[in-house]
Amino acid sequence: MTIRVAVVGATGKMGKLALRLIEEADDLELHAALDSRSGLDEIDGAEVAIDVTHPGVSGDIVRHAVTARVPVVVGTSGWSTDRIAEIERLQRDTEGSRAVLFVPNFSIGSVLGTAFAAVAARFFDSVEIVEAHHAGKVDSPSGTAVRTAELMSEARGAEGPFSAPHADQRARGQLVGGIPVHSLRLSGLLAEQRVVLGGDGETLSIVHSTISASSYESGILLALRSAPARDGVSIGLDALLDLGLPSGDR
Predict the structure, then answer these.
(1) Active-site residue (options: 133, 134, 166, 182)
(2) How buried is 119 (Cβ within 10 angstroms: 0-12 exposed, 13-18 middle, 19+ buried)?
């Protein structure tokens, strides 16, 4: 039995990667490949859709998938908590709606780096995140950095918020979950995230570097194979893995 997949953003780098993985997989087949000229109704009838487009159009794509009752994997960045909450409300109001899985990063190593940072968050009062991506990335902070900061803040629990001195100064970065996040956009880079935690007499750095887009392959396949059997709204591949993180399910 194969899973019919609609790829939205099929002409982009991630879209082309998804198309190749679908072609090579015995249990996946292409339902439709959508580009900027395609109508969203081409998604209809798929068993899962994957959105790897642009923050400006991703909302329309996800809303269509929800109302068309097609499970959707959202690989497009730029989804804030408020925008995700809007999708949650739409899904609750749409009878028979299917799963929506937001994936800030398809790399298993990145998910593990975030998990390690969430564990360490309880033991350090000071932390900052530096994320670096290629010059063509249009959003900042990255979805991965936002997810990491949110999970670290949530993991603090009774320890309370992190210390973030001089947060009113623009050079101190954008506060996400009380954590300063700094974004670099440079030619020659693919992606890297560095979480630096500070304590008395020591620092701990948790670094994940993406060297090749091949690091996304296992995560894309996991998401496509898992989404049709899920319900509700989930955030992150950690929702599909047993990492001991707070659940991404909504």
Answers:
(1) 133
(2) middle
What sections of 132-234 are H helices per DSSP? 143-156, 217-226
Q: Does residue 233 fall inside a structural domain?
A: yes
Name 184's Cβ contacts closer than 8 Å, sequence gap at least 6. 130, 131, 132, 133
- Asked if 114 and 81 touch (Cβ cutoff 8 Å), the reply is no
Is 16 annotated as catalytic?
A: no
75 and 55 in contact (C-beta within 8 Å)? no
Residue 250: the pLDDT is 61
Residue 247: its pLDDT value, please?
Answer: 55
137 noted as active-site residue:
yes
How many structural domains is the chain composed of?
A: 2
Q: Are residues 73 and 159 in the same domain?
A: no
Mean pLDDT of successive 10-residue stretches along the chain, which has 250 residues = 96 97 98 97 98 95 98 93 94 94 95 95 95 92 93 88 88 94 94 96 97 95 96 91 67
Range of the domain at 49: 3-102+214-240
Residues 16, 54, 134, 137: which is the catalytic one? 137
Same domain as 30, residue 64: yes
pTM: 0.86
